[in-house]
Write a structure and sequence with these properties.
215 residues; alpha/beta; Nucleotidyltransferase, domain 5; six-stranded mixed β-sheet; 7 helices; 6 strands
Length: 215
């Protein structure tokens, strides 16, 4: 297998280019060669890569008012695991709030993002709403495994059972999070520094800025 060509092929497919056009740009001599490369990689890694087009996820559909979304068409591949960075923002604590998530595959390629205005909420409430948004996105993709990465140490440790949830409102949101998480074969919670959560943080603040501009 031509590793450089295969890597380029995956990048083109992740960018939404159909396989009929992507194989030649990636440097394969024929479409059949690209298809064989995809099948070979699927066999070697067992990650479910296929040459058939997956059913479109609901994430690609119309976006409701107050929600922003960007979706990459993953042509020719079936994603079995998502890494989702989540962040919540509140200006006032409580105050105008939002939640945002950015999803990646295991190679670090950005696949899709969503953001939602929440109305009035606390910082922690916004963070939990971001958890819900992240798990809903992963459910739309139909993946069995998801890793949620957040810069909120409190929320991560509460979801891992290391901290108790004493606030009643947060307990309700946490219950919804656990309900959604139970739908996956594997759900991992990871705390990361804010410097590694820049994309989700930026998206959460952008949608808040948009809500101010439209008033």
């Amino acid at each position: 297998m031509k590793k450089n060509s295969f890597k380029k092929l995956l990048e083109l497919l992740a960018g939404g280019l159909p396989l009929d056009n992507a194989w030649e740009q990636a440097g394969f001599l024929a479409k059949a060669e690209a298809e064989d490369a995809l099948r070979e990689m699927a066999s070697e890694l067992g990650k479910g890569i296929s040459t058939s087009r997956p059913e479109p996820a609901p994430a690609a559909g119309p976006v409701s008012a107050g929600t922003a979304a960007k979706t990459v068409d993953i042509t020719g591949m079936t994603i079995s695991e998502l890494i989702v960075h989540a962040d919540g923002a509140s200006r006032g604590n409580p105050g105008p709030a939002s939640a945002a998530v950015v999803a990646y595959d295991t190679e670090g390629t950005e696949l899709t993002s969503r953001a939602k205005r929440l109305g009035k909420a606390t910082n922690n409430g916004a963070e939990y709403s971001a958890c819900i948004l992240a798990l809903e996105l992963a459910a739309d993709f139909g993946v069995p495994s998801v890793t949620i990465r957040m810069d909120s140490e409190l929320v991560v440790k509460q979801m891992k059972g290391e901290y108790k949830i004493r606030n009643e409102n947060l307990a309700v949101l946490a219950g919804k999070v656990r309900e959604l998480a139970a739908g996956f074969e594997r759900c991992v919670w990871e705390h990361i520094p804010r410097t590694r959560n820049v994309a989700a943080d930026k998206l959460a603040n952008e949608i808040l800025d948009e809500s101010v501009e439209t008033k």
